[in-house]
Write a structure and sequence with these properties.
This protein is of the alpha/beta class and 466 residues long. The protein contains 15 helices and 19 strands. It has helices spanning 21-35, 49-62, 75-84, 117-132, 152-163, 168-174, 191-197, 225-234, 261-279, 295-303, 315-325, 348-362, 366-371, 390-402, 445-465, and strands at 4-7, 10-14, 39-43, 67-72, 89-93, 102-108, 177-181, 201-204, 238-242, 249-252, 284-290, 307-311, 327-332, 336-338, 377-384, 409-411, 416-420, 423-429, 435-442. The strands form four sheets. Strands 1-2-6-5-3-4 form a six-stranded mixed β-sheet, with helices on both faces. Helix 1 crosses helix 2 and helix 3 crosses helix 5 (152-163). The longest helix has 21 residues, at 445-465. The protein is globular, with a radius of gyration of 22 Å. The chain starts with a strand and ends with a helix. The relative contact order is 0.10.
């Protein structure tokens, strides 16, 4: 089904159309058998979340294992708790940046990171066996609460972990005026408290964790108009926006300009570079980013004599390469900041902390900090396709373009990535939507527009040839 997706990014579908309570039950039952131990279950604020969370808990308990209901928590908070509580795994009821009528599951291993490709295959084998079984017991069972970590204590655990790795005193002295827009999602239960711990005066929109997204769920510039207005109205130093499960971070500058998620990672990385040198933290001077991440990060790393490793798109791929190389920092250009001393996954709160520290220690505005970064014009677009035709369309496109890349550095590990003189582009099949994604950068706006137009034209031609 086009509206049901299983990938390293999670399992997602439209509630009542391609995702049902029975589907969640079977998925949770399979994960419980796969993980063999205590399972933590958290969720974002979607209307279907509570029902699906109850269903997942019932499924886990039919296997005789303990299911701990964490309630509404950000995805990075659940990742952290799985590791700290030494659980066998975790399940997060969320569809990330998809609309509120979607939901799904993110599956967490015992190390507090998402399942890699090998474990996902093993889990899906288990899921297929479960679906074939008959006579599941689905009676209602009492819920379990873990007194130490649930609710407020879970939030405090995450906050204290982030604060341990940033200069809290420098931030507190500045007394920043900060806006937040957690899109009425899971970030609403922690963002204000986190910022107030740093002596920030907080102004907010969409801060009710009711699941009624007050804007487009992705924190893209076009969705942050009201947050920009909030910054201007109250003369704020900056503002932060999150997606519904609060693993992605976007920034609005003191001028009320949404600067794009790529800058979230770049500014957080600059903050980490400063902290790494000053505090002599452990870890390799290596940063891991995916093939779609801005050239800014790579330029910054090389100027600081750090190594850069690129991976296939996907948080799991970045994390696995970080573990392999001992990298001390990583992330994705969609606003995903990964700092392994804090969390083995994208963490918007780690990103906020590092960016606040950078602004405090540099005594510069967000606009000034951006002005010091390497400059590129970026393009992002997508071409809708039928999921049944997607791979075929892509292969036709690949054959047509392959002969014209002689003067480029080409990577075929995840779609096609071509890097030339002062530009790069990537065309790949989406893991979460029935689309082919197009992205890239160039040092002039004219070049960026020309590249995007050419790539879209060739994809349309490939689609006609099918």
């Amino acid at each position: 089904m086009e509206n049901f997706k299983i990938s390293l990014s999670g399992i997602r579908g439209i509630v009542g159309e391609s995702l049902f309570r029975a589907t969640i039950f079977d998925l949770a039952l399979a994960f419980s058998k796969f993980s063999r131990g205590k399972i933590l279950i958290g969720r974002d604020t979607r209307p279907s979340g509570r029902r699906f969370s109850q269903t997942a808990i019932e499924a886990v308990k039919t296997t005789g294992r303990n299911a701990i209901d964490l309630g509404i928590l950000p995805t990075p908070t659940v990742l952290l708790l799985v590791k700290k509580m030494r659980a066998a795994g975790g399940m997060i009821i969320t569809a990330s940046h998809n609309p509120s009528n979607w939901n799904g599951l993110k599956l967490v291993n015992s190390q507090g990171s998402f399942l890699d490709s090998r474990d996902l295959r093993r889990f899906l084998d288990c899921f297929e066996k479960v679906k074939k079984e008959q006579g599941h017991k689905k009676e209602k069972l009492s819920l379990s609460k873990d007194v130490k970590f649930c609710g407020t204590k879970a939030i405090d655990t995450h906050i204290q972990t982030v604060l341990k790795y940033i200069d809290c005193q420098a931030i507190k002295k500045k007394g920043f005026r900060v806006g937040i827009d957690p899109v009425n999602g899971a970030g609403a239960v922690i963002s204000r408290k986190f910022l107030e711990k740093l002596n920030c005066r907080v102004f907010s929109i969409n801060e009710n964790p009711n699941g009624r997204f007050g804007r487009g769920p992705e924190p893209l510039p076009q969705n942050l108009t009201k947050l920009s207005q909030l910054v201007k109205k109250h003369n704020l130093d900056m503002a932060f926006a999150q997606d519904p499960d609060a693993d992605r971070l976007a920034i609005v500058s003191e001028r009320g300009i949404p600067i794009g998620e790529e800058y979230s990672l770049a500014l957080a990385f600059q903050g980490w570079l400063n902290r790494f040198e000053e505090s002599r933290l452990q870890g390799e001077r290596t940063v891991v980013i995916n093939l779609a991440t801005s050239q800014m990060v790579e330029d910054m790393a090389r100027m600081s004599d750090w190594k850069v490793r690129r991976t296939r798109v996907g948080e799991v791929n970045v994390v696995e390469k970080m573990k392999e190389t001992g990298a001390s920092f990583g992330g994705e250009g969609n606003g995903g900041v990964i700092c392994p001393l804090i969390n083995w996954g994208r963490d918007s709160f780690a990103g906020m902390g590092l960016i606040l520290e950078l602004a405090a220690s540099s005594r510069k505005t967000i606009s000034q900090l951006i002005g010091e970064l390497p400059g590129y014009y970026r393009f992002n677009d997508k071409v809708k396709i039928s999921s049944s035709k997607g791979r075929e369309v892509f292969e036709v496109f690949k054959k047509k373009f392959k002969g014209q890349l002689k003067n480029c550095k080409v990577n075929f590990s995840d779609g096609i990535r071509a890097e030339g003189n002062k530009f790069w582009w990537l065309v790949r099949l989406s893991n979460t939507e029935p689309v082919i994604r197009i992205m890239g950068e160039a040092q002039t706006n004219h070049k960026a527009k020309a590249l995007l137009a050419s790539l879209k034209r060739r994809l349309r031609e490939a689609n006609k040839d099918i």
